[in-house]
Amino acid sequence: xxxxxxxxxxxxxxxxxxxxxxxxxxxxxxxxxxxxxxxxxxxxxxxxxxxxxxxxxxxxxxxxxxxxxxxxxxxxxxxxxxxxxxxxxxxxxxxxxxxxxxxxxxxxxxxxxxxxxxxxxxxxxxxxxxxxxxxxxxxxxxxxxxxxxxxxxxxxxxxxxxxxxxxxxxx
Length: 171
Fold this sequence. Notes:
Layout: H1 2-46, H2 52-62, H3 68-79, H4 86-98, H5 105-117, H6 123-170
Helix pairs in contact: 1-2, 1-6, 2-3, 3-4, 4-5, 5-6
């Protein structure tokens, strides 16, 4: 029975360490996925001249599943014709998605900043804002890769070592 407790403690602490490390691994991937999605949105706005709600829904159908709800919910809110502004639809969708991703507060701020300009200007200005956003996301991806390299292994080992420390202290 004592060994079962020891194994459970070590596995629980290790699992927490691996969970935190997983967020460091997922963040660069999700930033790349966002860049690809915004590239599609830029194409829809620039070349297809698709209205914003339709463009958002189009992107949601073709982007990665982890970020698709952001575009889908924003597009649906704009399509509902309930007097929702593009920024409000974007912010509400981002708030819902943020909790389900590995993105941090700085990423959320960048996306909110973009949302303030969403749908408020002509096509050329929208493209400029999308290009600026993609530049910012690339910089964040680079930073997140550096963070991942530093912290992923640290959290994995820390989880195991903390579990062993707890076991030693309890025994």
